[in-house]
Design brief:
- This protein is about 0% helix and about 45% strand.
- The protein has no helices and 11 strands.
- The strands form 2 sheets. Strands 2, 4, 5, 6, 9, 10 and 11 form a 7-stranded mixed sheet that branches. A 4-stranded antiparallel sheet has the order 1-3-8-7, with no helix packed on it.
- By secondary structure, the protein is an all-beta fold.
Length: about 130
Amino acid sequence: QARLVESGGGSVQAGGSLRLSCVGDKNTYLRYCLGWFRQPPGKEREGVAVLIRSDTAFYVDSVRGRFEISRNGTAPIVELQMNNLQLEDTAIYYCAASTSTDCYNGPTRRENYKIWGQGTQVTVSS
């Protein structure tokens, strides 16, 4: 069954914007860590932006200042606004949720996340 469902991906020219949404099946995800990872073609999956305890945002350096993670309710439970997209942002973007407090000390570590969506493709072209 789908526990996290992403939407909002697409193709955009460099400098453009996209907004991703993630809808979960459990409100309890917000008690720990809920956020976004991405996997560029031929590369490892990496953390992008994470919401910790629903009120603290963490961003990887490469997207800080360009991306913003936020809540607008429980459906969707988290969104990612991506501005000034660059070629290096091209990837499959995954929503991920932690089910324990282990993520507090490592919000971008893949091993701290047990629930994943199927991903949504973001393609940035010049």
